[in-house]
Amino acid sequence: MTTAIELAAAIKRGERSAVSVAEEAFAAISARDGEIHAFLSLGQDHAMEAAARVDAAVAQGAPLGPLAGVPVALKDNMCTKGWETTCASKILEGWKPPYDGTVVERLHAAGAIVVGKTNLDEFAMGSSTENSAFGPTRNPHDLTKVPGGSSGGSAAAVAAGFVPLSFGSDTGGSIRLPAAYCGTVGLKPSYGFISRYGLVAFASSLDQIGPFTTTVADAALSMEVVAGYDPKDATSINEAMPDFTGALSKGVEGLKVGVCADLLDGAAPDVARRVAEAAAVLEAAGATLVEVAVPELKLGLSAYYLLAPAEASSNLARYDGVRFGLREERDDVVAMNTATRTAGFGAEVKRRIMLGTYALSAGYYDAYYGKAQKTRTLILHALDRAYESVDVLLGATTPTTAFGFGDKVADPMSMYLSDLFTIPSNLAGHPAISVPFGTGDDAMPIGVQVLAPGKRDDLCLQVAAVLEAGAPR
């Protein structure tokens, strides 16, 4: 598939028209999305109007943004003005935000053409995109397999060749996990690098928007477009961003790469083999390999599944049938609230709300939520110590390749274990990237993961570019 960088360059040179590129994207979606279900809604009329404006600017010799004419898809938990934003939940079905999120605004300013909103696990709670109220998304490589979650629709849209660039959100691995399962690049940026204004909240101290692309260079370009301070987000970092694109040509000569056993413990043999091959690629390119143990990372899963549901319990309290979204009429407010939430939320969302409410309840707060926060700090300090001796950490993105539909639905703990290697970066607020690196014994994609210290997203991209160049073809 043509990359975002190549498309934008061809459109700027007048070799391609933005309208024809958009038409091709919609034709591809029409031909195959019936079986994949990557999209929940399409915005063809608006997209074609935006593409025509790009072509007019090209004809006039007007300045163009770095993504001029590039089709882009957005996870349907990002607010788009006047365009239904459902979070794949019946409780928000039909809701149209009155504003665009900051990422959406920046994409429009860069000339990108938003073609549709993609499917997800309801309110981004899941690892397989089987929890959507509007039906699951399927893996483009094998329709019997899940695409990962919660940003499965965004990953599938890129993997299927519908768009060269999409955006998802990552709370515990929801970008990197589907990127690994679908064979795309997926970057979870440092917390605070990309504005969360307009992202419907799941767990506010963990959520982060990031890109899915076919190449590391496209991921770097997308960061150039959407990263940076936003006064509308109180957690946005007010400082200069790294040179994301400039990092791609630096190589890894002289870098110390920590091959982390704790990011491999529990991985299937075929996944572990690919990580070993990835380490060899980096070593051949001049990096020094160092065996690193960070045993505290194994505590991440239990801490996350207390902290994230606790924050979700608070954030989702706003869906009460009063201000927006679904409303089930009853005789009194309490009955209406109860009926609305019963009808509007799916089983996984209800499970996490109950877990979070319990963890925050009187008598249990210190024992559960308080202890989980201390564990989070423990993990952060452990990673800081690891980065005193190495520049980055290397490990698996996921324990296995994509699993079959229904394989883990009846066993929530088995599903949660899919996030084992991705959660620590969210707890620490650090960047991490999943890079496609060959396939497994079942011929499904495998992703290897690079973790870097906070605010060193450029270092993630720098190492990822070398891995990409050396990946099995």
Distance between the termini: 15 Å
Indicate the low-confidence ranges by residue numbers.
none
Number of helices: 15
Residues in helix, %:
25-40%
CATH topology of the domain at 4-247: Amidase signature (AS) enzymes
**Gyration radius, rounded:** 21 Å
Shape verdict: globular
Strand order of the largest sheet: 1-3-2-4-6-5-10-11-9-7-8
Identify the CATH homologous superfamily of the domain at 4-247.
Answer: Amidase signature (AS) domain
> Strand fraction band?
5-15%
CATH architecture of the domain at 4-247: Alpha-Beta Complex
What structural category do the secondary elements indicate? alpha/beta
Q: What does the average pLDDT come to? A: 97
User: Count of DSSP E strands?
Assistant: 11
> How is the biggest beta sheet arranged?
11 strands, mixed
Helix-strand sequence: HHEHEHEHEHEEHEHEHHHHEHHEEH
CATH class of the domain at 4-247: Alpha Beta
For the structure shown, list the relevant keywords.
Amidase signature (AS) enzymes; single chain; 15 helices; alpha/beta; eleven-stranded mixed beta sheet; 473 residues
